[in-house]
Each structure stands twice: as structure tokens, then as C-alpha cells.
Amino acid sequence: MTELHPAVTTLITSAHGETVVPSVAEGIYSLGWLIIALPLAGAALLLVGGRRTDRWGHLLGTATAVGSFVIGLVMFISLLGEDEGARSQTQHLWTWFATDSLDVGFDLLYDPLSSLFVLLITGVGSLIHIYSIGYMAHDERRRRFFAYLNLFIAAMLMLVLAGNYLGIFLGWEGVGLASYLLIGFWQHKPSAAAAAKKAFVMNRVGDVGMSLAIYLMVVTFGSTAFTVISANNHGASEATMNAIGLLLLLGACGKSAQVPLQGWLLDAMEGPTPVSALIHAATMVTAGVYLIIRSNFIFENAPVAQTVVVIVAVVTLLWGAVIGCAKDDIKKALAGSTMSQIGYMMLGAGLGVAGYAFAIFHLITHGFFKANMFLGAGSVMHGMDDDVNMRHYGALNKVMPITFLTFAMGYLAIIGFPGFSGFWSKDKLIETAFVENTWVGLAALLGAGITAFYMTRLMLMTFFTQKRWKDPETGHEPHPHESPAVMTVPLIVLGALSVVGGIMLAGNWIVDFLAPVVGHAEHHEPPIPALALTAIIVAVVAVGVAIAWFTVGRQEVPRVAPQDVSPLTKAARADLYGDAINDTLVVAPTMSLARTLDSLDRHVIDGAVEGQGNATSGLAELLRKTQNGYVRSYALSVLAGAVILALALLAVNW
Amino acid sequence: MKPVIDYAELWPLFAVFGVACIGVAVEAFAPRRVRYPVQLVLALAGSIAALVGVVLIGRDLSSGGSVKGEVVMMGALAVDGPTLFGWGLLLVVAIAGALLFGERRLEGGVSAFAGQAAALPGAEPERDADAVRLDHTEVFPLLMFAVGGMMVFAAANDLLTFFVGLEVLSLPLYLLTGLARRRRLLSQEAALKYFLLGAFSSGFVIYGIALIYGYAGTMSFAGIHEAISNNLGNRTMLLIGLAMVLVGLLFKVGAAPFQAWTPDVYQGAPTQVTAFMGAATKVAAFFAMMRFLYVAFGSERWSWVPVLSVIAVLTMVIGAILAVAQTDVKRMLAYSSITHTGFLITGLVGARSAGLLTDNEITSTQSVLFYLVTYSFMTLGAFAVVSLVRDASGETTDFSRWAGLGKESPLVAGVFALFLLGFAGIPLTAGFAGKWAVFASAMSAGLWQVVIAAVLTSALAVFFYVRLIVVMYFHEPEGEGPSVALPSVMTAVTIAAAAVVTVALGILPGPVLDLAAHAGDFIR
Description:
The complex is a heterodimer.
Chain A: H1 6-15, E1 23-24, H2 32-49, H3 57-80, E2 89-98, E3 103-110, H4 112-135, H5 142-161, H6 165-183, H7 190-221, H8 226-231, H9 238-256, H10 264-267, H11 273-282, H12 287-294, H13 296-299, H14 303-326, H15 330-350, H16 353-383, H17 401-415, H18 421-436, H19 438-463, H20 485-500, H21 509-518, H22 530-553, H23 567-573, H24 578-605, H25 618-653
Parallel strand pairs in A: 1-2
Antiparallel strand pairs in A: 2-3
Chain B: H1 7-29, H2 32-61, E1 62-63, E2 66-67, E3 70-72, E4 77-79, H3 81-101, H4 124-131, H5 139-155, H6 159-177, H7 184-216, H8 221-230, H9 235-253, H10 261-268, H11 271-296, H12 301-324, H13 329-348, H14 359-386, E5 389-391, E6 394-395, H15 399-402, H16 405-408, H17 410-424, H18 430-444, H19 448-474, E7 483-484, H20 489-507, H21 510-519
Antiparallel strand pairs in B: 1-2, 3-4, 5-6, 5-7
């Protein structure tokens, strides 16, 4: 190939994903490692310190999270002062692997993309730590809870600050572990333990994709570093890139609860509510979106993988929305909504350079308003004696005014009420989708309508309609009350952010800020004028709200869910049969295989070991057993193996 | 020709065998009460001296970036980088083994070995032996003989020495397996099975050796390589010979379809023996297998790589699936060891154009060497912890009896969880670094099918390791719950060292990887 003019090379590069060219971190940026180390040290101290730290453990846990936030904020402000070209900083901590053919360092990368994530994780994380002080006040294992939360924060920061895929993988496993521990935190509930296991198993499926992608990168590029891969990405064939992209997507699906690995998220709501807010709404579940956008230099060269991302995203955003419509459990309704909103972000990530920045934008605003609503739901549950069934709520707006008002901010943001943060971010995503493909755009638009419906339903059933607090069978009636200030202050902060989060789009700031990482797209006009499209979106949202108003708000809400409902509602209540599908296709065959092999192993091959319980039954028994053909059957298998081995070796040679 | 013995390169080997012979004499002549301390000190001193010797020899043979090997003892043994690496590792495992064998606190002043092995289980002589607190201190010489055999096996450079090494390492292990103080029937059954099947597979090896000799007209690995390169004789005979010798090797490492003995023997043997045997046998057999395949059969690579690839996949899949169904800790660890054998073979087949010694072949050898280090320490540590969890009738290995261990003894449960996470290959543990190395080696040799199977199996494997962690931490104990016996300092040191290595090699695998690279290649 002839040498290209430098300018042409640059052009090619930008058309195929951005090249990562960081400078070595100095000054304030060299504190990057401390952002991760603080919460990690907190977790270690609280776990090792044991009961001695019970009294002040929660304060220490909160302090480390706030400390990381402060460092992150200082670094962010100083990053804003840098030239656009110098906003990418790398820090080499130590060499992890060094072999002849492969070098993997323990490297951190701080650039505009990770800077936003650091703020989101530590900012929302700190608020949720503060909230948890109140929420977990009566839990005797509160210290342990804060240790796990700190562990999670550290792992999540590792994930977004890593400078290579192995580092991401480390954080990836870490958040998985923390999530597992936190979902199953109330281990006395069997449902919590089962949910933790389910999340764990489904995430392993995703992790397999992730590890294979990394091995494939090592083979293709001889490295896992963003710098090396992004610089050489046109050296690899499109087929390889598609394979890497699809494997990464599999990983992203597991972590971000996208179809077909979506099943664990609804069950994960068994964890304490602050966990649902932090891990299963604001941060961890968005890691998949981060992964894909971080890998833009791979996906820009992998058109097939990119298309699959869009398909997964569209299916999930509708899937989650439909589930959200039928759930009576307030947290599960919100979880369905999370799934659907991450579908929107994935959609942005799948749309390529045009969508990356908006996906991140939506991710951040969603982090605000969804965390806000989850914490609000927690506040409601706190007042309602931990009841989660919305059919037992009603008319709570008077007794819990702060919770109600902050929740309303989140509600207006998520449905995309003009002016609120969600309006700006979702509007941009739908617009970009229409530019790409009309059908995708229509699906996203439909999703917005459904979102408006289920969120209005949730809002009405919880805060309006008639009181349904009293249990007619036991006569128990909770006395809802507003939560203490330590819980309402974070709600107020998050509520405010839900309102003003859209400011990031002012003057196209977030798009320009992220451009060095994700590239700058040429602006394409949507098929219909943007303003008209916005009007249509608002109209569709209004229709969704109206339908909810007439079907829920104007009618009596029964305390017990009616059973004579449409097949669609039944399907949505059963999570669109996601579990049934998994059971039939995966779980049942695997278990029967394992059982068959095990019974084969026990009864045919080594039945003799069954005698372990009665070891005193005399040598005669032993002799009877050893002469019963068991060793002979072992020997037979050795003989058969030898014959097969010899035949195989001969066969290979013919 | 006058035989020459290269004492300068071989004295660690003689130290080990010498100590073993002295140990036998001690049994014959020393009074009973001094035997235990003398034997323990002898075994430890012998292993440490030999280890020092290995380091010194390694220094002497080092030149430039790698170790310059030598073929010694008239071509019977090769002392090269991998040999020294293997010897060093075997001796470290031997030291740990001696420390574990010397544990007397767990059984209240006696060792974990039978008071009088010849007595019928449950019969009067057994009770008499227990009453006077008899101990079989012969276990120490047996241990040293096994270690010596393993060292010979790892360094064997011709087929006869190879076979002698195999037998010398096996016979003491058969005996040790049958010496458990508790559950003696199970232990003896395991020993008998191990012996019968081991003898059976040795038969295959000797037959294979005969066939290979028939083809090549020589026993030496270099000579076989030469004969294959010149393509003399009947290839069918050669390939059947190769298959027969592989049967013996695959049997020793517990690869499918020759894995059936592993769970029974691991479960039946005294736990201390299982710890030593699980680590050391695998090390020795993999060194022997690599030398045999790379040096003698390097140019036959196209024959054995596909076959061993299939065996690797089969081994890890069978191990992992059966491990899922286990409810006994030792048995589960045994199936897990089968899975790890599969991973190790994955690294071994990653050899690229063995025969032509390219850079990439170093990577394959290096990855297997590194994996063996990580695996040995985790195995030693895990089984050592198993020996601590007890009830009135001795060790208790049923999952249900491990429930609530996290509350009973957070330290022991935490360390065990660390080893399990290491086996599972979670990042920042040694297991991850090891898996990473062998998978990357196989992947760069183009064996992506094997790597996909390996990654899928690892994912499945995590499930059964974590299930045990969940049992320890999140399940309520049934009845009284488990109790953790306080070990003597010897077991404690072994567990602590294994835990430290497991963490250290996860965070900083560099030095050991470098050492493995420094070891260089198998010489002819």
C-alpha cells in the first residue's frame, strides 16, 4: 500500500472510530488511582475490621465515596481547562503480565468519557450512601452493607477508568461479585438468594463473551490496550471485527440486562432498595453501554455487530416497557422501565458516531431520575412497612409530600415532559434513530408512548387514587409518614438534577466534550423537521398519559390483581415468559445432562464409593465390592480409551 | 565405555534419594519415640538442601537470558531449564507435603496415618495400636521416594528412565493412599483401585515403549526424534507406541477417558496425601509429557495435537459437568482437578511447530509451567484447609456439614473461598493469571475451538466453586454445625504460604512468568 497523506490518514481514522492517544498523567491527574483506592480501602477496612467498626462503619463508607467524588470533581474541572487534544490522560500503575508476545499493564485512562462516568458513579453513589444511612438504620448488618457498597463503587470505577480490556474485565467481575453479594444481602429470604444466583449465572454467560472477545483481541492485535487496538483497527478483517463486536455485545447484554440475558434484573429487585437504585438503575447496568461506546473503534469497523446492537436495543426497549405496564410491584415496574431505558441507550450506542454522545447523555440523565425514583420508592416502602405492592398504596401525596414532589420530578423527566432532563436526551435519541431508519425510529417512538403509560400508571396508583392501605384480612393498616432528612435530602438533590440535567446539552456541550473519544458525526437532517418530530413525540407521550389516566386514574383500583385479564397482560406479568424460555431451552437440558452423567458416574462406574457411609462394615464388604466388577469397569474404560486413542492417532495420519 | 555420573548437576536428586534411604534405616534402628522428629527433620532438611542445590545449579547453568541445559548420565537424564524449574516446584511441594504429613495436633497427638496399617479395620490390633498411639513414620521416606521418582520422571531423557521414574513415583503413592487413620476401608479401597489401574496403565506404557523402540531402534528421546525425521520404519507401529505411552501419561494426570480413578483416590486417601499427590503428580507428569511430546515427538506434532485437543476438551467438560453434581468437598475438588488437567493440556497443545524451536513454543512451555505453579499452591492450600474442618468422627467433607463455616471461622472460610476463587480463575487471583496464560498460548496456536470450550467450561466451573462459597457463608448450619480444629504451626504455615502465593501471583505474576521464560526450552 502506498503511503497516504497524513490528512487522509486522519480522515480514515475518524471514519473508523477514534484513535486513543493519551498523554501521561501529571499533576492532579496522577491522583486517578486514589479514586479507586479510597472506596477499596474502605471496603477492606470494614470487612477486616469486623464488629469493632460497627459503630462508625457507615460513616467511613460514606466518607470514602464522597472523597472519591471530590477528587473526581477536581479532576473534571481541571480537565475542562485543558485543550481538547490533551483531555486524555493515562497512568501506568504496574505491569500485570509481561511475556514475549504480550504486555498488559495495570493502566488507568482518564478521558472525557470516563470523567463523566466517574462523576456519575461517585456522585450518585455518595448520595445513595447517605440515603442508606437512614434506610439501613435498623439493620444489624449495616456495616457489611456499606462494605459491599464501597466494594461495588471501587469495582465500577475500575471498570470505567481501565486503560485496557483486561482492566475492564477486572472491574466487570468485581461489580458482578458486589452485585451478587448485595442482591442476596437479605439472605434469610430464599427469594433473595435465588435472585442473586440467577443474576450470577446469567452474568457468567455474558462474561464468557467478554473473555472470548479479549482472547480474540490478543490474537488479532497482540494487546488489550485501547491505544494499540484503536490505532490498528483497520489492520483486522471485518469478519474478525464483527466477531469481537458480537462477543462484546454478549458481555454487554449480560451486564445491562438486554434481551436475551434480561431475566435477572427483575429478580434482582430482591436486594435492598438503595442497591436497586445504585447498581440496578444508575450505574452497573449501564456498563454494557459504556463497553460498546468505549469500543467504538471496534464497532465502527463491525457493521454486522452494530446492526445486531440496534436489534437487541429495539427488542429490549419494547420488552422492558411492556413488562413495566403490568407489574404491581413498584420496584419491578421500575426495573422493567430501567431495562427499557437501557434499551434506548443501547440504541444510541448502536447508531454509531451519531448516537454515542446522546447515549451517554441519556445514560447520565437516566442515572439521575431513575436513582431518584428508586430511592423515592424506597422512601414509600419505608413508610408502608416494606410493602411493595402498588395496589396497597394510593393517595400518598399528602402524607409524603417531599417524596411525592421529588418522585414527580423523576416522573416528568422519564416520560420526557418538555424542559425536563429526560425530554432532551430521549428526544435526541429518537431523532437520531429516525435519521438511521424509519422503523427503528417508530419503535423508539412507540416505546416513548408506552413509557408514558406505565409511569403514569405507577404514579397514579402510588400517590393518587383512593387509599387502599388497610389489609382486609389481617386488619393491619400501616401509618405512612415522611422519611427522615438523611433520606429526603438525597431525594431533593436527585430531583433537582432530574429537572436541570438537560443543561448538559446546552450549546451542544456534551457532544463536543465527548467528540475526542467517540468522534464527531456530520449532522444529518431527520426525514421530517426536528421541531415537528419533537411535537409528535410529545403528542405520543400525551396519548400514553391519557390512556393511563382513563384506565387507572378514573377507575377503582382493586386491592387484589384481577385474574381475568388479556393474554398480553398475563404475558407481561410473567416477564413475557423470559424465564420459561430459558428453562426450556437451557436449564432443563443442562440439568438433565448433568444428572444423567452423574448417575452414570455413581451407579455404573463407581458405585463402590457409595459405601463411604458404612466404612465399618468389614473387609468382606469391601472385597465383595471390589470384586463386583467396579475396578474391572474402570480398567475396561482405560482399555477402551487406549484403543480409541490409538485409532484416533492413526486416523489423524490417514 | 565407562559410565560417568555427573554429580555436579545431579546432587539434588541424590540428596532426595539419600534422605529416603536414611529414613528407611531410621525406621529399622532408631527407637520409636525419636522416629517422628528425626524423620520430619530429615525430610525437611533433605528437601530444602535439594532445593538450594537446584537454585545453585540453575545459577551455574545460566548464561545470557536462559538456562543452558546438559544431557547427563549417559543421556538418561536432561538437566535443562524446565527440569530445574520442575525440580524446584516439586521440592517446594515436597516441603509443604512434609509439613502436612507432620501434622499431629488435629488428631490429638497422632498423625493422620493409620497406627498399624496391617491391622484389619475395626479389629482388635487396630484398637491396640490406637491405644498406644502408634504412628506410621514410614510415610516420610515414602514421601521422599515419591519425590525422587517424580524428579527422575520430569528429567527423563530416554524411555527406560522415563518408565523407571514413573514406577518409582507411583508405588509410594499407592501405599500412602491406603494409610488413612480414619475411614480405613475407603482408604484401602482407593489404594487398591489406584494400584490395580496404575499397574494396568503401566502395562500400556511398557508395551508402547517396546513398539517405539521397535520403530526407532533406540530408547533416547533425541534418537527417536532423529528416526522420525528420517522417517524410517513402520509408522503404524510408531503411532500405536505413541498412543500406548500417552495412555500412561494421561492416566497419571487424570485426563479423560482415564480419569475414573481420580475422585475415588482423592477422596479415599488421607487428605494430606491428596494435597501432596494432587499437586506433585500433576507437575511431574506434565513435565514428562511435555518432554516426551516436544523432544521425542516434536515433528509428529500433526499427529498428537488434534488428538490431545479433543482430549483436552473432553477432560474439562467431563470434569466440570460432574463437579456440578458433587456434594462432597474432596470429591468436588477431585473433579475440579480433572477440569484443570484439561486446561493444562490446552496450554500444552498450544505448542507451535515444536521441533523448530520458535519464540512461540516458549510461550506454550512457559504458560504450562506457570499454570503448574499456580495450581500446585492452590491445591496444597485447599486440601490443607479441608483437613481442618472436622467433627467427632474426623474430617467432615459433606457440603451440608460445611454450611455456616463462614460464621464459625471467618478466617478458614475466607482462605478456602480464596482458593476456590483461584481455581475458578477470578481476576486478581493466581488462577486467573494461569488460565490467561494457557488460553492465550492455545489461542495464538490457532486452536480457537479448544479455547472456546475452555472458556465455556470455566464459566460452568465458577458455578460449582461459588456454590460451595455460598454454602459456607449463606446457608444455616444443620444441627451443631461444623467445627474447625486448630492446626499446628506446620499446617498453618502451609496454608498461609499457599494463600499468599495465590494472591501475589494474581496481582504480580511477572516474576514467575519471567522465571518460566528464563527456563527456556527442553533440550535434546
